[in-house]
Every structure is written in structure tokens, then in C-alpha cells.
């Protein structure tokens, strides 16, 4: 909700649009603990699609999915995908906005539990001796001493997922003509102008 409020403030300075948010328990249709980047992203999009069906007529539907990824050095990283769906957009290619949070390494003991099939939220509870940690600040909250609570961690990624809706003209500029409007000559002319500006500044006393 805070992410959408921030977007509205930037695109509707006169405050003519009201924000109404309804939460749903939407299925991800992936495993309880996604173990790859792709599976996590799919889970987020599935949740957004399910939410849109539960709230017919909504302007946007948002799906969030947390996941983990093992790297080549044996470090397990935690991240999440945000998916924003605009159901009214007829063009399938322009209906979705997606973005990923930053990633952070999990403590080895948590990672070991997850590799054994334990969901991250439960692994967090076991290691930190908390209860229902995933309902509070989350793993990112405890590892950062709540400097970055879960809500804040998700907020920036949701705003990033909204970029194609916030700056639609910029995001899709040239898409309709395959970018034909930006020719090699256009690029060459721009670079020459920049070089002239640099040369002019260098010659100034």
C-alpha cells in the first residue's frame, strides 16, 4: 500500500485519485519454498492473476513471492519477486510489471535447514528462536536489526515493478515501430553533439 501511495503522489500531485487496497490469500501454484529465481517469479505472477480474479474490476493486482537461490560458491541467497498486473490492458505484453528485490545471504544454519526441505520462515523461527517470523519483519528484518523490515524491503521492488506504468510513454517509446525512429544517424548525431559540448567546456578558462 505504501508503494502504491508513493507512486500516486508522483503521478497525481493534485491528489485526484483515491487508493483502495484489499488483501487476499492468493495461491502461488509453486512449491511452498521456491528454490529458483524462475519459480519465484512464476509464483508472484500466479498470485497476481489469482488476486485479479478475486477482485474483478480492479485497476491493478499485485503478487509477491519470496524465494531462495544457491550460488556456485554454496551460498544461499534470499530474494523476492513482485508482479503487478493491469487487467484492463488489452496488450498482453504491456499488462505486466515485474521486479526483484535485492538479495541477501542466509546464515549457514538457516540455509542447511532449507536444503533439508524446511520452509525459510520455519528455519528462521528455529534458528532465531522466534515464532511466526514471516508474519513480522521477516528474515530480512532480523538480519538487519529491523533497519530493513519486510515491508520496506518489498516496497522499493513494487515501485520498480510499476515503472512501465509510471513512465509508460518512455518505457514503450519506439516499440510500435520496432525502434525505427531511432536510426544510426540519430545516435551518431547525439554522440557528436556530446563531444562538442565536452570540447567546449574543456576550452573554457
Computed Rg: 22 Å
Taking pLDDT < 50 over at least 5 consecutive residues as the criterion, the unreliable ranges are none
Determine the N-to-C terminus distance: 52 Å
What percent strand? 5-15%
Mean pLDDT: 88
Please describe the biggest sheet, giving its number of strands, its sense, and whether it closes into a barrel.
Answer: 4 strands, antiparallel
Proportion of helical residues: 40-55%
**Count of DSSP strands:** 4
Large-scale geometry? globular
Task: Supply the number of helical segments.
Answer: 9
The topology string of helices and strands comes to HHEEEEHHHHHHH
Structure description:
This protein is α+β, with helices and mostly antiparallel strands and 205 residues long. 44% of the residues lie in helices and 13% in strands. The chain has nine helices and four strands. The longest helix has 20 residues, at 184-203. The termini are far apart.
Describe the secondary-structure layout.
Blueprint: H1 2-11, H2 37-54, E1 61-70, E2 76-85, E3 96-100, E4 104-105, H3 108-115, H4 120-128, H5 138-143, H6 150-161, H7 163-166, H8 168-171, H9 184-203
Helix pairs in contact: 1-6, 3-4
Amino acid at each position: 500500500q505504501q508503494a502504491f501511495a508513493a507512486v500516486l503522489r508522483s503521478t497525481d500531485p493534485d491528489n485526484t485519485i483515491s487508493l483502495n487496497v484489499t488483501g487476499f490469500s492468493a495461491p502461488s501454484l509453486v512449491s511452498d519454498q521456491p528454490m529458483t529465481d524462475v519459480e519465484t517469479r512464476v509464483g508472484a505472477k500466479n498470485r497476481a492473476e489469482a488476486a485479479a480474479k478475486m477482485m474483478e474490476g480492479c485497476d491493478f493486482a499485485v503478487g509477491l513471492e519470496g524465494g531462495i537461490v544457491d550460488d556456485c560458491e554454496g551460498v544461499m541467497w534470499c530474494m523476492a519477486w513482485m508482479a503487478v498486473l493491469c487487467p484492463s490492458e488489452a496488450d498482453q505484453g504491456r499488462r505486466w510489471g515485474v521486479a526483484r528485490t535485492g538479495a541477501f545471504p542466509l546464515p549457514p544454519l538457516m540455509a542447511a535447514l532449507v536444503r533439508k526441505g524446511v520452509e525459510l520462515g520455519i528455519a528462521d523461527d528455529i534458528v532465531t528462536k522466534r515464532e511466526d517470523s514471516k508474519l513480522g519483519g521477516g528474515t530480512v528484518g532480523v538480519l538487519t536489526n529491523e533497519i530493513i523490515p519486510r515491508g520496506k524491503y518489498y516496497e522499493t521492488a513494487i515501485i520498480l515493478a510499476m515503472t512501465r506504468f509510471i513512465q509508460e510513454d518512455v518505457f514503450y517509446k519506439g516499440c510500435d515501430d520496432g525502434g525505427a525512429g531511432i536510426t544510426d544517424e540519430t545516435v551518431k548525431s547525439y554522440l557528436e553533439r556530446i563531444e562538442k559540448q565536452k570540447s567546449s567546456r574543456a576550452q573554457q578558462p
